Amino acid sequence: MDLSHAKYLGFTTFRRDGSPVTTPVWFASERPDTALVWTGASTGKVRRIRSNPHVTVAPCDIRGRVKGPTVPGTARILGEDDLPRLVALLRRKYPLAKRGLEVWGGVSRLLLRRPPGKMLAVEITLG
C-alpha cells in the first residue's frame, strides 16, 4: 500500500488485553512498504510496541478519522542513529508545522526549565 499521499496516519497499537489504541501521527515514507513515525520514548505506543509489535495503519485526518483502508504491519523501534534521517524526512513533508513544533518545544522547555524529552523513530513494515 502506498501511503505517500496521506498526510496523517492512524497508527493502532494493541494493549496486553488486545484492545486497540489508535493515534493520529505524522509519518514519512522512503519506500511504499514502510512508514516511519516520530514519537516520545515514554509514550504509551512505545510501551505497547515493546509488548506487541503487531500494529495496523490507515490514512486519516488530523483528528484520527480513517480515510482509507486499514493495513496490518509490524512496528520496530529504531536506534538513535535513525532519528536525524526521520527528522529530515518530516521537515520535508511538513515544512512549516514541523519547524513550528520545534520552535514551540524549545520555547516551552526554556520557560518550564525542563530538559527535552527523548524521542524515538518507529519503523512500520506494512503487510
Provide key terms for this protein.
single chain, 127 residues, Pnp Oxidase, Chain A, seven-stranded antiparallel sheet, 29% helix
Describe what this molecule looks like in 3D.
The protein has 127 residues and is α+β, with helices and mostly antiparallel strands. The protein has a single domain (8-126), classed as Pnp Oxidase, Chain A (Roll). The protein contains three helices and seven strands, in the order ββββαββααβ. It has a seven-stranded antiparallel sheet with strand order 2-1-5-6-7-4-3, sandwiched between helices.
Write the SSE topology.
Layout: E1 8-14, E2 20-25, E3 27-28, E4 34-40, H1 44-51, E5 54-60, E6 71-77, H2 83-93, H3 95-112, E7 119-126
Antiparallel strand pairs: 1-2, 1-5, 3-4, 4-7, 5-6, 6-7
| Class by SSE composition | alpha+beta
- Classified by CATH, the class is Mainly Beta
What is the number of helical segments per DSSP (H or I, 4+ residues)?
3
CATH architectural designation: Roll
CATH evolutionary superfamily: Electron Transport, Fmn-binding Protein, Chain A
The span between the termini is: 8 Å
Integer average pLDDT: 85
Sheet of most strands: 7 strands, antiparallel
- Tally the beta strands: 7
Regions with little confidence, pLDDT below 50 for 5+ residues: none
N-to-C SSE series? EEEEHEEHHE
Instruction: Examine the coordinates and then state which fold CATH places here, giving the name of the CATH topology.
Output: Pnp Oxidase, Chain A
Short note summarizing the structure:
The chain is of the alpha+beta class and 127 residues long. Helix content is 29%, strand content 35%.
